[in-house]
């Protein structure tokens, strides 16, 4: 898509947002929504899947790897997946503004960084959990992301352990081999099914079951914003190959 075509597509998207009925727009976002906040995605040259570790990233963030190799898991997790100093970018801020104005019905995210809530969004469905929530697998005590990083640094093996009972502190994130939270999944499906407009942004739509949520959409306008093509582009009314933050800079 030429530069002028991209600009026209972005303008068309903004016109759709402006004309949308109240609470009719649902946003479904992936890693590309947070890259402009300095959080790496998965498949870019600096992404999580292109790392110099002895195991593939998909393996290192699986439940079986967590159970069998907790030290290696937390080395990868704490160094490559937790960014406590990250700040919301223009996309996060605009979505929160649109929710406050009554346009956005829900934000569904595959991200685990909590930046949508930090920007002010309330109706957020976190499909894959959040690094901001952590709990002791033994006694259930809750810990913040900063506390987990501190416990990781203090332990000889790099395994965050509960000071109260020495149990392992697990992040409240959905690892590979783990199911999605049924309540979050149902709420996401309901929001998409009731949406008049679905905006899919910053995701390759390659990871299931999350990518399959688009099948529940029965509304009028499907918009896909992603720098590279997705398997669902042919279904979209509008495809925009641009940074998500640039598209939401209005």
Automatic annotation (TrEMBL):
Family matches, as Pfam families: SIR2
Domain Deacetylase sirtuin-type, first and last residues per copy: 3-250
Binding of Zn(2+), residues: 136, 139, 162, 165
Catalytic residue positions: 128 (proton acceptor)
Origin: domain of life: Bacteria
Keyword field: Metal-binding, NAD, Transferase, Zinc
NCBIfam families from the UniProt entry: PRK00481.1-1
Protein name, entry field: protein acetyllysine N-acetyltransferase
Organism encoding this protein: Raoultibacter timonensis
Lineage: Bacteria, Bacillati, Actinomycetota, Coriobacteriia, Eggerthellales
């Amino acid at each position: 898509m030429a530069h002028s075509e991209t600009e026209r597509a972005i303008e068309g998207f903004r016109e759709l947002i402006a004309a949308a009925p109240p609470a009719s727009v649902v946003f479904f976002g992936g890693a590309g929504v947070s890259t402009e906040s300095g959080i790496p995605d998965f498949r870019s040259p600096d992404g999580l899947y292109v790392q110099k570790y002895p195991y593939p990233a998909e393996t290192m963030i699986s439940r079986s790897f967590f159970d069998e190799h907790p030290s290696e898991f937390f080395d990868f997790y704490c160094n490559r997946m937790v960014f406590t100093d990250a700040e919301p970018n223009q996309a996060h801020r605009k979505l929160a503004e649109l929710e406050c104005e009554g346009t956005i019905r829900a934000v569904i995210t595959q991200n685990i960084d909590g930046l949508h809530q930090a920007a002010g969004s309330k109706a957020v469905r976190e499909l894959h959990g959040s690094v901001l929530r952590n709990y002791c697998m033994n006694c259930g005590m809750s810990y913040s992301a900063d506390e987990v990083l501190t416990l990781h640094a203090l332990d000889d093996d790099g395994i965050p352990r509960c000071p109260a009972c020495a149990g392992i502190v697990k992040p409240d994130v959905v690892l590979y081999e783990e199911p999605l939270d049924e309540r979050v999944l149902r709420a996401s499906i309901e929001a998409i099914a009731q949406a008049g407009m679905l905006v899919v942004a910053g995701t390759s739509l390659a990871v299931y079951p999350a990518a399959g949520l688009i099948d529940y959409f029965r509304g009028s306008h499907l918009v896909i914003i992603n720098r590279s093509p997705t398997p669902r582009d042919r279904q979209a009314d509008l495809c925009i190959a641009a940074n998500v933050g640039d598209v939401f800079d209005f």
